[in-house]
Each structure stands twice: as structure tokens, then as C-alpha cells.
Amino acid sequence: xxxxxxxxxxxxxxxxxxxxxxxxxxxxxxxxxxxxxxxxxxxxxxxxxxxxxxxxxxxxxxxxxxxxxxxxxxxxxxxxxxxxxxxxxxxxxxxxxxxxxxxxxxxxxxxxxxxxxxxxxxxxxxxxxxxxxxxxxxxxxxxxxxxxxxxxxxxxxxxxxxxxxxxxxxxxxxxxxxxxxxxxxxxxxxxxxxxxxxxxxxxxxxxxxxxxxxxxxxxxxxxxxxxxxxxxxxxxxxx
Length: 239
Description:
This protein is an all-alpha fold and 239 residues long. It has two domains: 4-134, Up-down Bundle (Four Helix Bundle (Hemerythrin (Met), subunit A)); 139-236. The chain has helices spanning 4-15, 17-23, 35-39, 41-51, 57-62, 64-76, 87-108, 113-134, 139-155, 161-179, 191-212, 217-236. Helix 7 runs antiparallel to helix 8 and helix 9 (139-155) runs antiparallel to helix 10 (161-179). Residues 1-6 and 8-23 have low confidence and may be disordered.
């Protein structure tokens, strides 16, 4: 079995290592992944890539007892700090995934092969939707958000403006990288809107650098809030 879920989570952890070292954060706080969800991929993989295409109904039915413990873990999982703004979407998706799992159990207890196949397809689709709730649209957006999270949730509340100064140039570079980010084929129709919002993000991030030079707390706080709001507008492009 391919251990894609474990490999993906390891890559995400490693990608946060540099920021973690610089700011002494718990790396899981700025990692969008939920390990329990990734681990479930091992079961989904067998269902979707092995049993389903072979129309192996006995194998699909046998997966029921493997699905249940994973679903319990996912239901009890906590989102990392960087994904707290996606809690409502996560909760909505979780309701759909649970309903899909219940349907899978019911079909596995029955004798309708087509309904069993349909239940497997639905479970796979709803699992993928849960991943999309958390997964950033591009690596560049994720890189920007990791630094923004530190500023907005750590440095700003502590009024640690020197710390913000220490990462502002890095953040500007990451904002500029967002403008040139390549969207997936499914999202490429939103490219023009995405680049427009990303360009505004660059402007708001540079405006924060200018505000920092004033040494005025209210001016800096306002600039951080404006930058954070623009990042949210960028994400709304894909809502």
C-alpha cells in the first residue's frame, strides 16, 4: 500500500521547519494538515484504487471495520491554529463525511452491488472535499500565510513590532510570489481574479513596511489588520 498520507504530512512538517526555528513555534500550529485525516487516506486508497475499479464487493464490504476507527479519530481531531478560520467549513464537511460513512456501512450490510459501489465513490469524493477544505490553493499562498499567522496571532497581540520588522521583507517576497503562482487546472478560470487580489496583497504588505517606519502603534496595527483582511479576500476567491 502506498503511504502517501504519511509522506505528505512529513513534507508539510519539513516545510515549516525554518519558520519554526526562527520563531520558536510548535510546528504543528502553522501546519495546515490534520494527521488523522491524512492517515485515513490509506483506507481510502484501497477502496478507490484497488477494490472499486475491480468491483470487488467482498473487499469493499470488508473495509467497513477499518473505516470506523479512522472516522472516530477524524471526529475527535483538532484543527491546527493556522486553520482555525476554516473551522465552520471543516464542521460542515465532517457532517457530510459522517453521513457518507454511515451510508457505506448500510450498503455493506445489504446485497445491492451497485449501491455498494456508489457508496464507495461517495465516500472517496467526500474525503477529497475534506482535504480541500484545509489545503491551500498554492504553495505560495501557504508560505505567505505561515508568516502572516505568526505576525497576526503572536507578534501583534504582544505589540512586538521589532519582530514584525524582522520578517516584513520576507513577507513582501512571499506576497510577490503569490502573484505569479500557477493555479491548478480546476482553478485556472479564477487566475485573473486571483492575481488581482494577490497584487493588492503585495500593496498591503508593503504598506505595513511603511507603517513600521512611523513607530506609531495605531498606524502599524491598522496596517496589519488591512493586510490580514486582504489575505482573507484572496482566499475568498476560491470560496
